[in-house]
Design goal:
Layout: H1 7-13, H2 24-34, H3 38-66, H4 72-96, H5 101-106, H6 118-126, H7 129-161, H8 165-176, H9 183-193, H10 199-202
Helix pairs in contact: 2-3
Length: 203
């Protein structure tokens, strides 16, 4: 996940200040599309792929070791810790949604002194949430439909027609590839086909 991180850090800091929040994916994007050095950008993408595969193998080994009987307590401790760090940001976002900008900067982790429920009313009106929600549903439904159809067809071939372990590992490899590592060829292909910045391209 940390290797693939791109969208939130780039939107918030664009990799700055300096290189304080620059990840491999952000550096790859800047090299390829800001500095127009597609060669170096794709080289970074290959390095991201290799690192992702290595980290995946290491993590699988660690969890296989933890799953042994003497380490069950450690496993539950890890699960509790992961649950906490997953839910706490959601709780913090809920608190911030009831604060003014000044209060967020002044006391980012404190309880709202006076909950500002009007933030939700203004967000509904100004952000035009119904339209954007409809877009989200449209894209998600179309993408899920295509993915389910193609996945079902592939799964049937692997399970019933051509039971090949190499083919299974080939498809599994696609799950481990960071999407950022192949974003450069995707954009180049979409631009050449003519679907860049279109609904079809997003789906």
């Amino acid at each position: 996940g940390s290797i693939k991180t791109f969208d939130i850090p780039y939107l918030m800091t664009q990799g700055g200040p300096g290189a304080e929040s620059t990840f491999l994916s952000i550096y790859m994007y800047k090299e390829a599309f800001v500095d127009s050095s597609i060669g170096r950008g794709t080289a970074v993408a290959v390095c991201m792929l290799i690192l992702a595969l290595a980290v995946t193998m290491i993590v699988n080994r660690i969890f296989a070791f933890i799953n042994r009987n003497p380490f069950r307590i450690l496993r539950y401790a890890v699960l509790v810790f992961m649950t906490f760090i997953t839910l706490y940001p959601l709780f913090w976002i809920g608190l911030c949604s009831l604060k003014s900008s000044e209060e967020i900067y002044g006391s980012p982790f404190g309880i709202p002194r006076q909950p500002e429920w009007e933030n939700y009313a203004e967000a509904w009106q100004v952000a035009d949430i119904p339209v954007h929600l409809l877009n989200s549903i449209l894209y998600a439904a179309a993408a899920v439909t295509v993915v389910v159809i193609l996945s079902a067809m592939s799964a049937y071939i692997i399970a019933k027609v051509w039971k090949n372990r190499g083919l299974y590992h080939y498809y599994s490899l696609g799950i481990m590839i960071p999407i950022n590592a192949i974003i450069i060829p995707f954009i180049l292909i979409f631009r050449r086909v003519g679907i860049l910045n279109t609904r079809v391209g997003v789906i």
